[in-house]
Amino acid sequence: xxxxxxxxxxxxxxxxxxxxxxxxxxxxxxxxxxxxxxxxxxxxxxxxxxxxxxxxxxxxxxxxxxxxxxxxxxxxxxxxxxxxxxxxxxxxxxxxxxxxxxxxxxxxxxxxxxxxxxxxxxxxxxxxxxxxxxxxxxxxxxxxxxxxxxxxxxxxxxxxxxxxxxxxxxxxxxxxxxxxxxxxxxxxxxxxxxxxxxxxxxxxxxxxxxxxxxxxxxxxxxxxx
Length: 225
Known about the structure:
By secondary structure, the protein is an alpha/beta fold. The chain has 5 helices and 15 strands. A hairpin with a 2-residue loop joins strand 12 (175-178) and strand 13. Helix 1 (25-38) packs parallel to helix 3 (59-71).
């Protein structure tokens, strides 16, 4: 395995992983595990945004690498960032979006896939490192961030907070609820098993209605005000 299979670059808010485009994926995953195991003490429970660069990954491969990083370091990956917008300011806004609304609450993490019939309920904001399958539910009094494919039910602001949001790398939910507002999907069925490209989106309330937009520097700037 080449010593440069994985190269980590960083700024104060995020990490860019330069990935070898040619080696088999399992070798790449092992290289990521080795790299973060060796550097675990360096990161010190940091909350970061993450970008993969240099290799085209499937959504499954991305999730495997995220799981590998989380399992072999003290990092908290709060969001993914489009590699075309990896400026330090964009990372800062992405991390702020994921963690600092509401700023007084300490969010929590759930690692794993939620399957049909499972309900994850929390009093704080939640980051799900995995998928939310059709029929699964995430209910939070704060914000919800899904670092995977969301095809289930999301209920953010369950205590009535209309400033809360829900975001996902792949946003294909059956239903999103924020406070007392609800929007349903006419596309995804309960037993959907399709593969969808990574297309991060955020849902929030504006002018009395839930809006869903692509996550970008402009979107975050507009939403955070």
